[in-house]
Amino acid sequence: DLDAARQELEEFIPHVKNISDSSIKKMAGRDLMRFKEFKKQGIAVKFGKFTQKENQQIQKNVEEFLSLTGIDSAEKLLFTSRFPDDKDTIHRLKTEHHFCEKISEGIPRPWRLIYYRARKMFDPNNYKGRYTKEEKEKLKKYQALHGNDWKKISELMSRSNLSVAMKFSEIKSAVNYGPWTKEETQKLMSAVKEVMRRKLKPENPSSVFSLDQSDTDLWIDREKLYQPLPWTEIETKVGSRYWRQCKQKWNSILVSKLTRGQQLYRGTNGLKAKINLIKRLYETKAEDASEVNWDELSNVIGNVPAAYVQSKFYKLKVSSVPLWKRKTFSEIIDYLYEKKLPELEAKL
C-alpha cells in the first residue's frame, strides 16, 4: 500500500511528501525494514555529508560483496553498463546475493544515497587529475552538442558525471580567479536579492523590504539569509565567477555584515561563547563534523550564520589542541572538553 508506506517512511524521512511514488515503492522495499532495525538500536536515519567511518563501512561492504560473488572489480559491480559482455552475469549475481542489502549494511541512510556514494568512491574516472587543454575543448564541444546531458558527456570523456558538470561550470565563461571587484560584488548582491525576493515573496510578503531602503543590509529576515540558494542561476547573473566562488563570497559577506559591530567573541562574552560551544559540541557525541547541526549551534554564539560558528571552532581547535591534524573530530572535542574547558571557566 503506497499511502501506508509513505506514512511509515515519514517517521524517518521528514521530506517524504516530496518524493515520487516510484521512489517510495523502492524505499519501502529497500529501506523501511532497515530503518526500523536502526530505530530499535536507537540510531537515527542520517543525511548530509558521509563520515569517514561510513566511507570505511561502504569500502568493507563492497569488498565483501566482490569476495562473495567473484566479480573482479568494484567498477564492474557499480558501473555494470561499462562492461556489456559481463552485464548479464553481474546482474544475476547481484540479484542472487542481495546486492541492495549487502552494500547498505551498517549504514543508517537511504539505500540510494549509499549507492551513489559508493559509485563516487569507486569510479576510477573521478581521479584522473587536471583537465588538459584538449579535454577542455572537447568538453565545450560535447556540451554544445548534447546540452547538459552529463551522463552522455561523461561516457564520451571517460570522466564522472559530477566531474564534467563541475568543470564545465568553471570554464563556460571567462572566470576571474583574482580578488572580487566592487562591480562583481554588486552583481552578486543583486543576483542574490533577486532570487531570494522571488523565493520568499509567496511565503511571506512582509519579510522582504524595499530595495530603496538606505540600510539594505537587513533587506530580508536574518534566518533566511543563509538558506540554500540556486547557485548556478546566480553564477549566470554574475557572469565572471563560477557558482562555488559566488557561494563562498556570499558566505563571507554574511559573516561580515551580520557580525559587524558585535563584540561576540571578545572579553567576557567571548569566553562564555567558547565555553557554551565546547559544551554543546561535547553533548552532541558526534564522531564527525558532518554530524553536527551547525545552524542550531549558531544560537550558542549569537544571531550569526553557521559558517561563522564553524570558523570560530576552527580557530579554537588550532590554537588549543596540540597535533589536532592527527586527531579525529571526537578526540578534538574530548580534548577541548577535558583540558580547555576548565581553563576557560577559571578565566571567566
Automatic annotation (TrEMBL):
Domain HTH myb-type: 123-160
Gene Ontology terms: biological process: termination of RNA polymerase I transcription
GO CC terms in record: nucleolus
GO molecular function: chromatin binding
InterPro entries: Homeodomain-like_sf, Myb_dom, SANT/Myb, TTF1-like
Domain Myb-like: 123-171, 172-254
Name listed for the protein in its UniProt record: TTF1 factor
Upper classification of the organism: Eukaryota, Metazoa, Chordata, Craniata, Vertebrata
